[in-house]
TrEMBL record:
It comes from the Bacteria. Residues 128-243 form the GFO/IDH/MocA-like oxidoreductase domain. This is Gfo/Idh/MocA family protein. It holds the Pfam family GFO_IDH_MocA_C3. Residues 4-117 form the Gfo/Idh/MocA-like oxidoreductase N-terminal domain. Keywords: Oxidoreductase. Belongs to the Gfo/Idh/MocA family. It comes from Nocardioides astragali. The keyword Oxidoreductase applies.
Amino acid sequence: MTTRWGIAGTGWMAASFLDDFAHVPDAELVAVGSRTLERARAFAAERGGEAMTYPDVVAADLDVLYIATPHPQHRDLALAAIAHGTPVLVEKSLTATLDGAREVVTAAREAGVFCMEAMWTRLQPAVLAARELVAAGEIGEVISVHADFGAHRVYDPVHRLFAPELGGGAVLDLGVYCISLAQHFLGTPSRVTATGSLFPNGADASASLLLTYDDGRAATLAASLQATTGRRATLVGTRGSIEIGPEFYRPTQLVVRREGDPAEVLELPAVGLGYSHEIVHVGECLAEGLTESPVVPLDDTLVVQWVMQEALGQLGITPAEGTVPGLSGARV
């Protein structure tokens, strides 16, 4: 069955996501939404779909709407689509704030409408294989997770990556991957401790997080927009470890070290850029009538949002949601 997609947002993320439609024959782009009809038309001329403004695309006849705008616009767009009964796949982070995420999740659950954060990493073949190895007891009990995601970017206060009003900063843009991975393999932490540095405009330039658990488990995570890091992740168990790489957020390989045995290297490449697995998964969830993903559940998304807000608060940052013109009356 063909899944009819709409997309809100016409930037780099939207274009990258649509590149992988070539690997999913039953995914079809039917609508493109942007702030202005002109921007939507320019994007649709290259990618297909009917050009619309945001108020029109959230009310369009779709199977699912992919929201790929800056973080502070996610809440209003998701709420408007849900109010029209349209399933949503919302780019990470789900929203700019914990309260915003709670609004979206509550609205989706009360309406019985599918909603998922676009944490594509969880659906990569390598991460799915790591989950299976852990479940099978191959490395014993996972007691710690280590992950880093750093990228050197030249500071530009008006660019989306650095502008606080657009959800800029290391935690919301890069740290979300590390935190989601820790949540995936360790569950909800008891405490969050964060330290880091700020850009001149107050956005977070780097952040180091320690997530601790009452039973002694822990996660050490780092995100930075000031320096490129190895971008690897390691799951440490009582009888071995699994290294996810070479870049854990889009991995192609696992290195499995079992106690007393030589390291085993498993090659597990993604199809296309890797978004294809997410696109297929959403289509399968919709076909099965699910309102939440079993791999990226909304409860996990809310915990990740809580961890990010705790970390940002300790750095002296208070994120805020934005508004989308024309959608104020669609809040639920």
